[in-house]
Design goal:
- With 414 residues, the chain is of the alpha/beta class.
- The protein is built from 14 helices and twelve strands.
- The longest helix is centred in the middle third of the chain and has 22 residues, at 187-208.
- It binds zinc ion (ZN) (2 copies).
């Protein structure tokens, strides 16, 4: 049976400026060849006008209705950081940050740096928190995991936890650390907020006096003396990709968020050397890892992040140049046998450089596979793709269209 290779350029689409977009201006001979070989169209990843996050967008592209399965970014980031999250866990995104001020309680202190001077060597701090914080009187276990840079994840595991609680991250400097509050009247939310507040106090005490922080203070660096929590989410009962679709999934990505989706769905998610999720990423290694994964997996997602990053920076030229770099890197994909592989190239949403945020503008799609009805579209561009035979589809339609092409779709009816 044929396999599916889905290549996603994050935040690919734009709103034209003087009739031009980074993609329409980029020299992309390889993508243009694929556009000529395939069927083209535009896609609303979730639904027309909806502004997808990268997480909800990818769930949709992988055939999971995000309105049913998405429960916040916390669980996905935790999975991406390497925590084996379980249904019912409550997970948070974490920042190591710097607070100052008098008093015992962390909630009396003011945040002066939300990234603790972009600290990166947090192994020791992770260890100190895991060894020092004690939540056993609540009957709850926790897993604290550092991520890249100043980031990390916290997972609470136990009976009767709720994610209906507020962040402790004030989201700006100059404000006090926020006490976690229940967001509904349930006992579970009240109890979870109490547990979080106890975690906050204990973690602060441990970090404040940690040798690494004393060292940093001596060097004039901001102490990483608090962990700020945000994006609480309860890990969903989400079926694995194989249970859901009967296919084995591999995800080739550099960013924690997309790796997290791959891990939540129990896919194969290798750490690719040089894959950074940034514009300096090693695209050649990622393409190599993708081709290797295609040998043993039925559905391979290759995710490329920097297009979105450059869009958030409002960098038209940078986005254009990076798209050209991607075009060169994917050249080996043109040699695939399209009787065996259904190749899709698209984005997870638009991030116009003029807006610097995700928008609901549809993204272009190419599908190349034996038997597709090749159309007249001759280049890969959000300004041309609408003329193609796919017309305008949604992310979950794309997933089903791909399954149909590779003969993995069951018949509806007799
Ligand atoms: Zn995205
Ligand atoms: Zn983005």
């Amino acid at each position: 049976m044929s396999k599916v290779l889905l290549v996603v350029l994050d935040g690919l689409g734009d709103r034209p400026i003087d009739g031009k977009t980074p993609l329409s201006e980029a020299e992309t001979p390889n993508m243009n060849r694929l556009a000529k070989m395939g069927i083209n169209g535009i896609m609303d990843t979730i639904s027309p006008g909806i502004r997808p996050g990268s997480d909800t967008g990818h769930l949709s592209l992988l055939g999971y209705d995000p309105y049913k399965y998405y429960t916040g970014r916390g669980p996905i980031e935790a999975a991406g950081a390497g925590v084996d999250v379980k249904p019912g866990d409550v997970a948070f995104r974490v920042n190591f940050a710097t607070v100052e001020g008098e008093g015992e309680s962390v909630f009396d202190k003011v945040v002066v740096d939300r990234r603790a001077g972009r600290i990166s060597d947090t192994d020791e701090l992770e260890k100190a928190i895991n060894e020092g914080v004690d939540l056993s009187k609540f009957g709850v276990e926790f897993i604290f995991k550092r991520g890249s840079g100043h980031r990390g994840a916290l997972v609470l595991r136990g009976e009767g936890l709720s994610d209906r609680i507020s962040d402790t991250d004030p989201h700006k400097v100059g404000e006090k650390v926020k006490r976690c509050e229940p967001l509904d009247d349930s006992e579970e939310a009240k109890r979870t907020a109490e547990i979080v507040n106890s975690f906050m106090e204990q973690a602060h005490r441990i970090l404040e006096s940690h040798p690494l922080n004393e060292e940093r203070a001596k060097k004039g660096l901001p102490k990483a003396n608090v962990v700020l929590l945000r994006g609480a989410g309860k890990c969903p009962h989400i079926p694995s990709f194989e249970e859901m679709h009967g296919m084995k999934l591999a995800v080739i990505a550099g960013t924690t968020l997309i790796k997290g989706i791959g891990r939540l769905l129990k896919g194969y998610v290798p750490d690719v050397e040089g894959a950074t999720g940034s514009k300096d990423t090693n695209l050649e290694n990622k393409v190599k890892a993708t081709l290797e994964a295609l040998e043993s997996y039925d559905f391979v997602l290759l995710h490329i992040k920097a297009t979105d990053e450059l869009s958030h920076d409002g960098d038209f030229e940078g986005k254009k140049v990076f798209i050209e770099k991607v075009d060169r890197a994917i050249e080996p994909l043109l040699d695939l046998d399209f009787r065996d592989v259904c190749l899709i190239i698209t984005g997870d949403h638009s991030t116009p450089v003029s807006v610097r945020e995700h928008t609901g503008d549809p993204v272009p799609v190419i599908i190349v596979h034996e038997g597709v009805r090749v159309d007249d579209v001759e280049e890969f561009s959000e300004l041309k793709a609408w003329k193609g035979g796919l017309c305008r589809i949604r992310g979950m339609d794309l997933f089903r269209i791909a399954l149909d092409l590779v003969d993995r779709m069951e018949k509806f009816g007799a």
